[in-house]
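User: Quick one: structure for sequence A, then sequence B.

Assistant: Sequence A:
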Amino acid sequence: MVCPYSLTVPGGVQQQVLGLARAMRAKGHEVRVLGPCDGPPPESFVTPLGNSLPHAANGSIAPLAPDVPAALRTIRALNDEAFDVLHVHEPLVPGPSLSAVLMKLAPVVATFHSAGESAAYRVFNRQLTRIASRIDIRVAVSKDAVELARRYVGGEYEVLFNGIELETFAGPDVPRENAVFYVGRHEPRKGLGVLLEAMRHLPADVRLWVASDGPETAELKQAYGADDRIEWLGRISDAEKIRRLRSARAFCAPSLRGESFGIVLLEAMASSVPVIASRIDGYTNVATHDHDAVLVEPQNPRVLAEAIARVLADPRLSSRLVAAGVETAKKYSMDSLADNYVEIYRRALVLEESDVTVIEVPRMLRRFEDRFLRRSGAPRSRSGGRAAGERT
């Protein structure tokens, strides 16, 4: 699997890549993850490709590694491992993902995560369309991600939900504190400012836990730092995130736009905490208003405050949302997602064996073609074949 974003920086795509790899390895498949790492790799199965640099993308800051050294490390890793299948996440993002697609040393399965708008897709759509033709099977995490990719690069896409590692969030009941929990980057599209403004309309005994940081952190602290009900946690570990989810009385995701899939909502549901979120496309993909979440008009602090107050004050509503949320989360298990991808990998191998897809090295590297292991007849797996599970 190839990830364009730094695997040591918290993020939705990184979380999906690592979780999916863990689920597949547990099923006996040999999986390695290639991606930038700013520090020690987070898992033993991760091959680091160098440090990342922050780049503005989709209203956010993405930790990318689009430099030549990272590309060369990607090529070296792909050649040394001679993988049977390449599963490339965000395949058109500069860095390891784009390099892996251009190399195409094995059948390529690609997962598109982004939704909303993309300046890069709009400006470079002609070049990206040609590059995307090297992808054998295209997957998108939601209908909104399909719409973005199809608008600029065309093609057909299968929709496969993001997954969560249910066992990570499950646990015994613990005493709940009268607190609302927020976790996400502090940037305009995440809507943290709306939630902070909503706190002014909530009772004095309601606290807010704000995790993570971002470009708006200093400005928001200056505007709302005097409110001692707000606890600024900064970046927290996964263990601390789970502890806060299981200790809060509500989880709030006030995003304004740019969400392709509501993975944070599912994590909260799996943690048995009621969810209040904006009614935006990315969140309505997984949550249903007044069933497993309360969904409100985005960018309206007073309406958001009213929804939070209602959930905190009504134990029957809270219990109903939690019970339905737990059942919703079960439908999105990482284990099921892994099974779906394994079948897709097998289809990709059939395409190669049937000569439907062509593994062709880019022109600039053809002088080194005899050095590429998988093309020169070297074994495709350490077990000598694919019977023991594809290597991804």
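Sequence B:
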Amino acid sequence: NTPAYKVVVFTLAAALAGLAGSLYAHYITFINPETFGLHTSILILAMVVLGGMGSLWGCVVGGLTLGLVENLGAAFISSGYKNVFGFVILILVLLVRPAGLFGRAKV
């Protein structure tokens, strides 16, 4: 029964997202709409695309890679250019492997 499974999975995902949001709000003690602005949304999308959209481990590796590059870039490069290296890596990976690092290529 595919529609029932879709509803159950969607409900579970929404509940986990709500739980994560409430824990994050408790952690930072202040909620602001700019907490997850355009830059954060693009960075999360880039993490998923870099790792591969069909793989859980690909998303984890993509997140670790871009997080590491962004933090190392913040330590060595001015704040205006710290994201450039992450997106250069993303472009290079997509030129070599269009499905991402762990994604499955469509035949």
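Helices lie at 2-28, 38-51, 56-76, 84-96. The chain is about 70% helix and 0% strand.

User: Thanks, that's what I needed.
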